[in-house]
Amino acid sequence: MERKEKVVCSILGFLGLLSAATGFAAEAKRIKGSQVLLTSPSTCTYPSSPAMGLGLTAAMALLVAQIIINVTSGCFCCKRGPRQSNSNWTLALICYVVSWFTYVIAFLLLLTGAALNDQHGEGTMYFGNYYCYVVKPGVFAGAAVLSLASVILGIVHYLVLNSAKNNTNASWVGPAAAAPNQAGIAMGQPQFPPPNTQAPVFVPEDTYMRRQFT
Q1: In terms of domain of life, where is this protein from (predicted)?
Q2: Residue 113: which residues within 8 A CB-CB, separation 6 or more?
Q3: Euclidean distance between the first and final Cα of the chain, in Å?
Q4: Most buried in the list 141, 197, 203, 214, measured by CB within 10 Å?
Q5: Are the C-beta atoms of residues 111 and 59 closer than 8 Å to each other?
Q6: How confident is the model at residue 80 (pLDDT cuts 50, 70, 90)?
């Protein structure tokens, strides 16, 4: 894993844990129905609770994580190449779609839960009785789980696309890198005679004449 990938995954992991932790904290601190007072026939008084701030923090952390995932991954459709395997492409596509699906649901749940944990509100009449809005149990907890799942799927999507891109670049750079090494090879005849070649023997001009008169 490259240094850039480690940094991106670390940031995403921190944001995912932050969103999940604040979501579970908001679930623990949410306003219960028994804590709301109906001070007048149409006015609900809510106690002070940090659930609204915790829910907004979880939503913002999830939003930032989703932005980072999409920016670092780039154009999803442009990442596919002829050398990328179908299994990697399918895995990245599944993670991408499911990550967006869980992100949208978690983000809406967090915002809705934070809005309903406001300290003041008006009662609503149902069949002659007034009721006050409160967050149902499990809304923040479910949003926290979906937030963490969305970030994990986004990390997997990012790593799969980067690994496929690196493999594609390596397959194209390999043959090109061998070409410069071959450029330094001299193509021509050897400049030195073979080791078995004998040097020419010098024969004096009168050697043949002396043999005739001998």
Answers
A1: Eukaryota
A2: 26, 30, 51, 55, 135, 139, 140, 143
A3: 92
A4: 141
A5: yes
A6: low
